[in-house]
Amino acid sequence: MTSPPRREFAGQTLGRFVAESSWADIGPDLRHEAKRALLNYVGGALGVSGSRVVDAASRVVAPFSGPQTTTVIGRPERLDLMAASFVNAIAANLLDYDDTHPNTVGHPTAPVAPPLFALAEQRGLSGAALLHAFILGFEVECRLGNAVQPDHYNRGWHITATCGVFGSAAACAKLLGLSAEQTWTALGLAASQSASIIENLTTEAKNVGVGNAARNGLLAALLAREGFSAAPAAIEGPFGWARVSGQEPMMEEIVGGLGERWELPKNTYKPYPSGIVFHAIIDAALELRSRLNLTAADIAAVTVRGDQLMLDRGERPIDSERDARVSIHHSAALGLAVGKAGVREHTAPVVFDPQIMALRGKVRAELADMPPWSASVTVETVDGRTETATVEHARGSPKAPMSDADLEAKFRDNAALGGSADKADARIAGIWAMEETADLAPLLRSMGA
Amino acid sequence: MTSPPRREFAGQTLGRFVAESSWADIGPDLRHEAKRALLNYVGGALGVSGSRVVDAASRVVAPFSGPQTTTVIGRPERLDLMAASFVNAIAANLLDYDDTHPNTVGHPTAPVAPPLFALAEQRGLSGAALLHAFILGFEVECRLGNAVQPDHYNRGWHITATCGVFGSAAACAKLLGLSAEQTWTALGLAASQSASIIENLTTEAKNVGVGNAARNGLLAALLAREGFSAAPAAIEGPFGWARVSGQEPMMEEIVGGLGERWELPKNTYKPYPSGIVFHAIIDAALELRSRLNLTAADIAAVTVRGDQLMLDRGERPIDSERDARVSIHHSAALGLAVGKAGVREHTAPVVFDPQIMALRGKVRAELADMPPWSASVTVETVDGRTETATVEHARGSPKAPMSDADLEAKFRDNAALGGSADKADARIAGIWAMEETADLAPLLRSMGA
Hints:
The structure is a homodimer.
Chain A: H1 10-20, H2 28-47, H3 52-61, E1 70-71, E2 78-79, H4 81-93, H5 109-123, H6 127-148, H7 151-155, H8 159-162, H9 164-175, H10 180-191, H11 205-225, H12 241-244, H13 251-255, H14 279-292, E3 299-306, H15 308-314, H16 321-324, H17 328-338, H18 348-351, H19 354-360, E4 363-367, E5 375-381, E6 386-391, H20 404-418, H21 424-432, H22 441-445
Parallel strand pairs in A: 3-4
Antiparallel strand pairs in A: 1-2, 3-5, 5-6
């Protein structure tokens, strides 16, 4: 990137960075990580493509959709770019089973990938162009998140949506070939559309926030292209996004080392659609199950040990699927008795299966001096054996990243849930081959029902 | 309204109020004021219907518009409900020539009227139904604004947009016949879509904020109807809209005296498309012009006296139309030499007319101990006369409201600017007759080009 003019605002620096970035600047590791993020994105949306919320979202926006240019992942209907971006972003993030950027605890791909898929399908763009735009959008949203975390979230802003709209705007600006000035203008236009609050986190208003981030970022880029203006200081000015949202941004996090350090390699993927703090329990329980060849009938008692955060979040009666996704007891029971903890194992038929309910009743949680996100599980069997497994770095955490094969298996699991197991291999292969694909339209069109 | 259950949240109280309100509860003064607000709304949008920003907004959203059910005011194209709401709200507020709610200094009608016009046109609803929904939406947004003003605006939130989305949601919920629970859910869904910042106030990102408030309020109501959920405490909860935006809301302002005291009667309308603090200057100058039969050639010197706020805001070089709209010198020059201060008199041909520029050069501003929003103007003529006029309550201010005839004249002025002078009388008559109109569709369809 050329050296910055004096007194440049953050949005302007980001705008230049995005507009001037060339594909040759992007190394193979970044490119590969982008494909991993997109594989995880598509799989997540496929898994819930038939869910009530996705149905309702599509039903609400369909009457406000222009030409049906865009595939809705895993579904038969087609919508315009905006409407499809809204629905696909909601699907991708619906179960919080999408990716997690550890430093911000945001889910960065859901607001960014959908409008890129939409533009690429409509215009027959190349995989390289899409991956490049995705990497840059991801970078912009995570840098803005880093600049205000953890206070932004703690204050009550749902960071996936509030920063996601900037990521979507930056990515769409790149894919549309906007100039540096148009790109920072798009970021400024995003700043006036950044919204979503934590009070609504356990409701479907949260999903609307994520869907809006995706479509409004695209809107910002399109408006900038048509000459709409925005303030250059819209991010950090006295009445800009960061300060109006309640805090002084850490500017170095936004503009330091652009093109040198990247956020995408820090991205993580969940192996289980449950709260991240419970993943070590599942892993430890799975290990015991395979070590002892367990079935539910073998188990007399279970003790789970973890830190205070785990106990605070995870000891609760289970009245709903949502409860099961943040339960110590259900996590342990799944690992020990089912040997699997995917989306299906967090739905009602399993959550309220009498055998699983009985096993949950045998699980006791205990405070232990352990690092966050780690757990140990001790099982006593009816025939008198006692065995403990301890997991410090749960699968999917930064020090134990999911392998490509893990991500493929997760994709297949999701595809089966969504009823498209037969198409999973072709779709997986298509995503891995994106970089060499000159026209993405056929692949993206094939993502429908 | 039935008495509130214990521990009801503000959104729930508002939701019940809106859902339970009956047209018979709405007195004739309120009904008439609603028509005045809508007359002013339509006129404002007509005046700028051919402007660059409205053109660009329509061009950007047209490709994302479904069935063309909705008139864009003063324009030939038709769009779907969402897209037309976006464009019409932008047009209505473009020059800040729309209405002003004095306590919040917000512009309440622009985000609320457009989706109501859209729904009424599509469904052939009655004028009474539209007026009723409008009055309730106006009430909700202004009450929320009252609960957080003046800190909300001072902190950097553009209150027209941030509260407007609640007004739009409440009004649309009423017009769609939603239940009390669906209505508070719509308000909760609006809380996750409330956005727009003051840093962007002098840019077109501001217009996007107002357009989004209109369309996203409609989206909130439609999502609530389809069963989307939201938090009951989304307004005042620990991580609800008010606190996340930075402050403790004044709850009594939201829920006190519902159905007894109303905000709409406090609404004001601008006679001139310039900053409200300059209106007294124009009035005083107009009075001098008529008293002395002035032309520009008669004037040797002009002194304008006002308070510090007026001087802070109004002493500036004039490089653009925007500057002219907040200029002491241009305001005085228009009143004295042109005898008119409408939209046309704030556009380049007049702003950069050499005679007007010369006259501005003769205007001096002076600090005086005067109440806010008042002014005195002293003119010295080339033949040696000196005359002063003082205006304490400018035309259009709460103590000197514009009459119905004033609003009609403003409408005709706007219509002429937008090229539809010939249709003005019919449209004015149609708006005054709204209450008795069983099917608004023909009237609303006639508002296009």
